[in-house]
Amino acid sequence: METRGMEKRQVNPMVKTALEFGPILAFFVAYLWLKDRTFVIGGTEYEGFIVVTAGFIPVFLLAMGALWWLTGHLSRMQLVTAVLIVVFGGLSVWLNDDRFFKMKPTLIYLLFGGALAIGLMRGESWLQLVMEGLIPLKHEGWMILTRRVMVLFLSLAVLNEVIWRTMSTDTWVYFKTFGLTAAVFLFFLFQGGLFKEHGSEETDSE
């Protein structure tokens, strides 16, 4: 679902990237700075991770609001991610329990992977709708790519669960900040053969 009410506009790619990834990097830097500190707020002790999570939520929402204002739209993935960040980040802060925020990537990837699976069972590529025509592919190509992305998402969901449940918070933060992004980047980097074989006429002309 796209946001409505504003015409989609082009924005400087550097600004767009900063708004999309800036909050994540800010979370990482703030965590390294405050991870070993404890804060007493309203008579309750909060570890640095919880305090950083509390600050991350409004920063992320402000960045998404600025992105919507500049571009006139937000993708479905961004909207779902924003909702889950507010819900599970809020639960972590409210209950003073970092497990909820750590589970968030698992639920995001399960939701997207499950949605793609439902679309595939209907003979449709819902990934094509999410990516909004950024990769011109024939129908067969979209179906293959959707199956692969579905497996990627479900694998990342399992990997996130293994890491946060068995490893330190430091390890999870590094994985969340860099590992997940690198995994998705490398995945698409190795899809060149698929894009070449199943590219649409629009891709060929470009």
From TrEMBL:
What does the record give as the function of this protein?
Plays a role in cell envelope biogenesis, maintenance of cell envelope integrity and membrane homeostasis.
Q: What name does UniProt use for this protein? A: Inner membrane-spanning protein YciB
Regarding protein family, the annotation reads: Belongs to the YciB family.
| InterPro entries associated with the record | YciB
Q: Which UniProt keywords apply?
A: Cell inner membrane, Cell membrane, Membrane, Transmembrane, Transmembrane helix
Quote a single Gene Ontology cellular component term: plasma membrane
Where do the TM regions start and end?
14-34, 46-70, 76-95, 107-129, 141-159, 171-190
User: Domain of life, per the record?
Assistant: Bacteria
